[in-house]
Amino acid sequence: QFATFSEVDTEIGKTLKRYEAFGDGFERFHVNLTKDALQSNDLQKSLKDMDKRCQDRLRDCASSQKDQINDILPFIRNTSSILVHGSGNLLALTIACSIQEHEGVRFYICEGRPARKGYPHGSGEQLLEKVLATPEGMRLKDKLHKYCTIVPDSGVSSVMNSVDFVIMGAYCVTEHGGLVHSTGSLQIAIVAAFRNVPCYVLCETFKFAHIFPLSTDDLKQPEDGAGEVVPLVEFVPP
Fold it and tell me: Among residues 29, 60, 153, 203, which one has the fewest Cβ atoms lying within 10 Å of its Cβ?
């Protein structure tokens, strides 16, 4: 399919470009993936090497999710009430495993507007679909709504009085300890701080980025959110 390394590099760049709004983690992966190919005269050997690195990274990601979930499960009890904001795979797997381990746990999932393409009702709906798609979630089926309730974004302050802590995902964690995540994260963090409710971020280490935004205006919005009055992602200062 590829005749030169330049074609390979261009294709990798196009594939990863869609993630550039979330920080430089994927750019660093691009550099790591292709660094040895520049000095090689055997393109096919370089392609096999890059494929192996991708497979190794996928295995690392799969195992790291389980490690992170094992770290957070001891903090969750049968009586825990947890507010969740986001729609990542790691959050979905955490919810499914928590319900499996703790029958009485209750999750309040933020509606997550503004909506994105494919999910007109917000990220909360997307998260529940991902929970059901996990091996643990498939066993829950119709029981999921017994443990999970989607709450409107405007009701976060009211629900905050009833939860033990907040968990949210992240598009990236900035160099100075800030958070880039979907809109609504800042108001949740402010309300949680005011109510003295612990707020935790659950994300993979490849999302740690060498960027220093000072406000949401410094972020590049995803393509399906460009030009909108309300941005799809926002910055939460440290």
Answer: 60
